Structure of V/A-type H+-transporting ATPase subunit F:
Amino acid sequence: MRMFLISDNVDTYTGMRLAGVEGVVIHSKEHLKEQLEKAVSDKTIGIILITEKFSREFPEIIDDVKLHRRLPLIIEIPDRHGTGRKPDFITSYINEAIGLKL
């Protein structure tokens, strides 16, 4: 199994290529759908890395794949601008998930 990157910027793509991860840089919703379908249908891809920007802008596309397929696993990664998450993201996630305040 291998990883595949779907990025919205060349810097993230270049960094991942240096680490040996293949991928694409895209800038439109249509191209995202096309490349995601192509990656999902490739049985050699086990993990799809996707920048958080796409998850924020097009959650319906990403969530559809996450909910209806076991593989490949979709991992959202921050890009060169940093993460869009709050500093206490993990604590908030635990509070929501189990109702325990940390």
Notes: The radius of gyration is 15 Å. Residues 2-98 form a domain with the Rossmann fold fold (CATH 3.40.50.10580).
